[in-house]
């Protein structure tokens, strides 16, 4: 089977999985489809204080991921300022979450931006790979906690965990056999591996940053629940969060639009939340964690371009000159 046919089959399989997940969620919600007026009433009754907490938590989540990138680059000998790292983080997220083939375009964009700041291509590639590894590993820990915390999901989670452990042991044994450890990696991958080797202390900090990034996003969802007056336990909030993120990963739609919302709403409805309240919570959370972050990301993408900054600087200089001209006419001089 050719690589093209394999990729086509994989896309069809993912599409079928998305349809299946959406079908299961709609079936679970079939008797609880909320009235739009009830949803709007739930949204209007939110607590603005808790909503502000949700916004702050999401902002901290993005800053923590930016800190992860900065730490990785610093391990490779490149120092990135905090404002630039935050801008790159928002911009790459916007590209990844809103465009077809977004992850590929986002990786190319990030490598280009890091290259402009002095990072070699192997170092940029290694930074992206390791950030994804730490992020995926810590999310797997959260998912495992969510699954083991529920009676209905504990059994399947233990079975899956046992299968993963058995596969890991088999791989380790295979690599220890004579001739079992043969590197078939390309020179570019080997160069990326050699470009970035975090020390033991750095690995711990990187893991903490990656885990805190997810936890702040979960805190955003929990704060939205509190703002809407939905009393859910930490485990239910975490389970709904994991369900939405897994659905977004499976989906072929940029940002997991629609599938993420269905996964979260179905989890909350299954926990006893009314349909209108569940939809209101998910809508507010996605407004903050997806749409607002997306808008900030595209603004950051524009500002990272030198031509755009130059065009914005020209009106700024004109305004400063105009203000200075009026001050001269009034006999006012700036203090020195």
Automatic annotation (TrEMBL):
InterPro entries associated with the record: L-PG_synthase/AglD
Pfam families: LPG_synthase_TM (PF03706)
Compartment annotation: Cell membrane
GO CC terms, sorted: plasma membrane
Superkingdom of origin organism: Bacteria
Annotated membrane topology: Multi-pass membrane protein
Transmembrane regions listed in the UniProt entry: 12-29, 49-69, 125-149, 155-174, 204-232, 238-257, 264-282, 288-304
Keywords: Cell membrane, Membrane, Transmembrane, Transmembrane helix
NCBIfam families with a match to the protein in the record: flippase-like domain
Protein's name according to its UniProt entry: Flippase-like domain-containing protein
Organism expressing this protein natively: Microbispora bryophytorum
Phylogenetic lineage: Bacteria, Bacillati, Actinomycetota, Actinomycetes, Streptosporangiales
